[in-house]
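Subject: design request, 684 residues
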């Protein structure tokens, strides 16, 4: 009997381990790779799959995506692609094999670093779906995101679907900093117009890149992730993404100490130290510590003949690596006035490629202060922050995905993907990133059939029958990455709704607007800027802003909006704060002038009498949104429900199926709003 005890113990242990050898998940975040196999498997089921990955491509329990695909009998893994540092992340630059057959898996492994950076038609011929599972560092100069960009371009050209499995940005999603790349300085270490620290996940970056690529892109998002999370908050184990980034300290220091390409200012100890010959370590530390840069202290430390400082990062949540790096460069030059590399018409320096512009080098050469250097890119950075809002997936509350995110810019795939030309893989050199093609609207190369242009006014609402109850669902502020999810729910439930569009969100989202109109929903204007201080300054300012937004809507859809909604509603008091006091008063406010002019111009404004409460905060749940609707719906014959459509309003989309079910149970039918529909009084 005793000899069987070890076997019984082993059997008991094995029954406690879930299939695949993973243990119960205790991480705060489920990765895209977790959700692909657990919930969104239909994206790959029955497919021949190629995979861009390396040693970072593991799920939250440490299982390799390669292994998970090879164990999956419904999927055939036919090719692997490796970014810089190779499939295992240990190869040094210059030694990476171009391509080879994997000795264990027996499938081709292609290098996407070196002369061939974009997958060739021969490489793409092995599969119909391309997966990407890579851990980014949060820096524009890290080449993994450039590899992603090239892969998306190849997928577009070859008519393949590309699926990106999302992962955290180790720096978090709130630090957005640095000069924004200018097109003449594009390179493999700067593939798109991003600041040095972009504050986006690799999935959000894919959505951002696709605005000018138009690939058939899906992003499998994470569950439980929030913008404010740094990597330790996720509960995930850090896997070194390269030989030079063995731990999170090195990731945080990467941009803080590694910006001095071509200057005497060097980094050491995996980006934990920065300095140069001729620098007094104590003075350098005093200058940096005196700047009160958040989350970091600087300890003077000399290395051989070089003076410098060691970074002690004590709060990664507020530490700003780019600003720290620029301050370090500026103070280093104050202490040791070295020559700053300058680009010429014939050659762009590595320093300027890193910065994405020549302006920083010029300011350094002029001896400008770090504060002046940071101020120099503030305007461009502000524009990027606004632009990126449309591509963000995650907000301040833990994200709960209801499906994979399909990029609204995807052009339809051809009926039959073009056959790959004969030849050996790995021999075609892609176009250089320094001369990219001009950005084109999604679908420019393979346009989708245009839906017939609708009339300016939607069909009339059926006359209500005695006892008839009508619900008008309205969504303000879009379009956004959340809009397709809303539209999918409306389509599934055969419900029509009304979308009040903010004009500045239209560029790049034309495909979403066309879908809204094509599926029978109504569109109204919600001004261009939605900026109270602009629109409520005067009657003229309001209509200039409204018309600017309406023109963009009309250009995208062929429909000139007649409906509109006031930012803040028609009975708002915020307009009193911003109205021109020389022309308006509390007794004769700007809103009176705007309403009179709206009547003259034939506009119909729509308020609401039910709201799900999502305007009050981004920190709300789907359950709270539903509860707010339930609390306000009594026995009204007609309700207009105010909801919002923005990247931070995912709970609204998640609650929508239950909101529809609740209203149906209460006896409501759903209609899009007709311009002749009477206005509904504002909730007091």
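Subject: RE: design request

Done. Sequence follows.
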């Amino acid at each position: 009997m005793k000899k069987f005890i070890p076997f019984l113990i082993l059997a008991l242990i094995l029954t406690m381990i879930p299939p695949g050898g993973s243990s119960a998940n205790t991480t705060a975040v489920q990765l895209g790779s977790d959700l692909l196999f657990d919930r969104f498997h239909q994206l790959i089921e029955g497919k021949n799959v190629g995979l861009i990955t390396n040693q970072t491509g593991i799920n939250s329990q440490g299982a390799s995506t390669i292994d998970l695909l090879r164990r999956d009998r419904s999927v055939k893994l036919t090719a692997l692609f490796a970014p810089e540092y190779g499939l295992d992340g240990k190869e040094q630059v210059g030694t990476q094999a171009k391509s080879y057959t994997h000795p264990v898996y027996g499938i081709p492994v292609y290098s996407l670093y070196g002369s061939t950076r974009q997958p060739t038609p021969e490489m793409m011929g092995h599969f119909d779906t391309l997966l990407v599972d890579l851990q980014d560092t949060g820096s524009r100069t890290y080449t993994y995101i450039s590899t992603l960009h090239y892969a998306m371009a190849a997928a577009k050209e070859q008519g393949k679907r590309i699926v990106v499995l999302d992962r955290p940005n180790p720096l978090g999603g709130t630090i957005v900093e640095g000069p924004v790349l200018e097109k003449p300085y594009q390179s493999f270490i700067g593939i798109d117009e991003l600041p040095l620290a972009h504050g986006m996940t690799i999935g959000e970056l894919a959505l951002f890149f696709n605005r000018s690529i138009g690939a058939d892109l899906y992003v499998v998002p994470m569950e439980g992730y929030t913008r404010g999370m740094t990597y330790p908050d996720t509960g995930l184990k850090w896997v070194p993404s390269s030989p030079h980034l063995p731990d999170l300290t090195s990731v945080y220091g990467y941009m803080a100490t590694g910006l001095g390409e071509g200057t005497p200012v060097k980094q050491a100890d995996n980006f934990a130290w920065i300095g140069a010959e001729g620098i007094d370590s104590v003075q350098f530390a005093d200058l940096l510590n005196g700047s009160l840069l958040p989350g970091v202290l600087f300890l003077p430390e000399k290395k051989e003949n070089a003076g410098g400082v060691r970074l002690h990062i004590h709060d990664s949540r507020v530490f700003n690596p780019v600003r720290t790096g620029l301050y370090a460069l500026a103070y280093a030059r104050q202490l040791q006035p070295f020559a700053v590399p300058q680009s010429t018409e014939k050659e762009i320096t590595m320093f300027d490629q890193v910065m994405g512009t020549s302006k920083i080098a010029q300011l350094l050469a002029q001896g400008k202060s770090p504060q002046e250097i940071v101020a120099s890119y503030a305007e461009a950075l502000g524009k990027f922050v606004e632009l990126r809002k449309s591509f963000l997936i995650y907000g301040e509350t833990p994200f709960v995905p209801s499906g994979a995110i399909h990029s609204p810019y995807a052009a339809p795939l051809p009926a039959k993907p073009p056959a790959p030309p004969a030849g050996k893989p790995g021999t075609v050199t892609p176009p250089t990133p320094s001369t990219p093609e001009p950005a084109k609207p999604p679908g420019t190369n393979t346009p989708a059939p245009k839906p017939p242009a609708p009339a300016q006014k939607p069909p009339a609402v059926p006359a209500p029958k005695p006892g008839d109850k009508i619900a008008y669902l309205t969504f303000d502020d879009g379009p956004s990455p959340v809009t397709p999810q809303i539209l999918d729910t409306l389509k599934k439930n055969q419900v029509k709704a009304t979308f009040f569009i903010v004009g500045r969100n239209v560029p790049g989202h034309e495909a979403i607007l066309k879908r809204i109109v094509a599926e029978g929903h109504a569109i109204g204007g919600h001004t261009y800027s939605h900026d109270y201080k602009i629109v409520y300054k005067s009657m003229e300012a309001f209509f200039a802003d409204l018309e600017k937004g309406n023109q963009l809507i009309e250009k995208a859809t062929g429909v000139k909006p007649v409906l509109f909604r006031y930012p803040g509603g028609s009975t708002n008091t915020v307009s009193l704060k911003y109205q021109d006091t020389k022309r308006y008063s509390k007794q004769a406010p700007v809103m009176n002038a705007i309403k009179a002019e709206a009547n003259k111009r034939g506009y119909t404004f729509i308020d609401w009498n039910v709201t799900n409460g999502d305007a009050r905060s981004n920190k709300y749940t789907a359950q709270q949104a539903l509860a707010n609707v339930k609390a306000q719906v009594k026995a009204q014959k007609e309700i207009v429900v105010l909801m919002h459509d923005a990247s931070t309003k995912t709970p609204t989309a998640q609650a929508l199926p239950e909101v529809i079910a609740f209203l149906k149970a209460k006896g409501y039918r759903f209609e899009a709003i007709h311009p002749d529909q009477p206005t509904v009084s504002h909730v007091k």
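Confidence is low (pLDDT under 50) at residues 1-25, 413-464.
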